[in-house]
Amino acid sequence: MKSLPVVRASELDVVPPEERWLVEGLWGMGDVGILGGQPKSFKSFFALQVAVAVASGKPCLGRFQVPEAGCVLLFAAEDALHTVRYRLQGICTQVGVELKDLDLWVIVAPVVRLDRIEDCQALAHTVESLRPKLMILDPFVRLHTVDENASAAIAPLLAVLRALQRTHGCAILVVHHARKSGAPRAGQALRGSSEFHAWGDVTLFLKRVKQGVRLSVEQRAGPGIDGLLLKLHDGPYGPMLVITEDEGGGEQDDPVGDVDRVLAVLEGSKSPMTSRQIRAGCRMRMATLLAVLADLESCGRVVRVEGGWLGVSRKLDSGDGEPGKRKRETSGP
């Protein structure tokens, strides 16, 4: 029987620090991962700006440096090709590059399915021919006909993409939708199987808030970003996402920060808190708060007792309430 190829650990390739990042702080060289968010959170716009940044070497969003420009391969399954051209042209004009000068390629096939062998072979051949530094697939739901909630169905499709990354060394960004409710971590808000979150080396998450959209970043082996406020700026050459300062005040809302603020408020209280009291301390919409509390309760990080809510650590320390005797708060939502 033929053995698998092996190499001594000390002989593995060494990647210099300057070659670690495809887009500094956002996406590692050769990483696979998800750009997630709910509908209308400008995921496709963001993906196109990443594409232009990598293909041109210009900073993404004007802040995140691209150490070295390279080839980008894009499949935009939900947008008309003339719309893709218009958006790319506008982004290029605003960052000061010519679209025709970029090593940026668009798959124009009407359909690509990762659950069809012939499509996987065609995609692999395309990647082998172009050798892109980055491949963007937007969105995942148009790349298959299987049940996204079934790990047994999703895992083989993600394995196809991981194999492309390992064989050809290209980074792969997949655009994917999120659930309607919140989750303790941005990656856990992705719709469907938990395989999506487990598969990615990095997860970018966009969520609409009152001031625009908030970007959060999770890295498998590096620091993330808790939240960066973006706005879609409709400039003279077309729309483009830009970083804007948080206006502060009012009700705040971001994918990861919501959870942190709720837990911080609960940990700061010696007694159960009603949802109204938590909301006053967190400054977020009641609907968002209730979704966060439900998710935290489901994963055992908060409990509902007589009089309101408690963080689990506070409950264990104080002895308030007893398992099996949790009651709804008396003051209502």
Structure explained in plain terms:
It is a single chain. The chain has 333 residues and is an alpha/beta fold. It has helices spanning 43-56, 81-95, 117-130, 151-168, 195-199, 257-267, 275-282, 286-298, 312-318, and strands at 21-23, 27-28, 32-37, 72-76, 104-106, 134-138, 171-177, 202-209, 212-219, 222-235, 238-243, 302-305, 308-311. It is built from 9 helices and 13 strands. It has a 9-stranded mixed β-sheet with strand order 5-4-6-7-3-8-9-10-11. Helix 1 crosses helix 2 (81-95) and helix 6 crosses helix 7 (275-282). The chain is globular. The model is unreliable at 246-256 and 314-333 (pLDDT under 50).
Keywords, please?
single chain; Rossmann fold; Arc Repressor Mutant, subunit A; 2 domains; nine-stranded mixed β-sheet; two-stranded antiparallel sheet; globular; disordered C terminus
The CATH class of the largest domain is Alpha Beta
Architecture of the largest domain, according to CATH? 3-Layer(aba) Sandwich
- Average per-residue pLDDT, rounded, comes to 83
N-to-C series of helices and strands: EEEHEHEHEHEHEEEEHHHEEH
Number of helices: 9
Major sheet characteristics: 9 strands, mixed
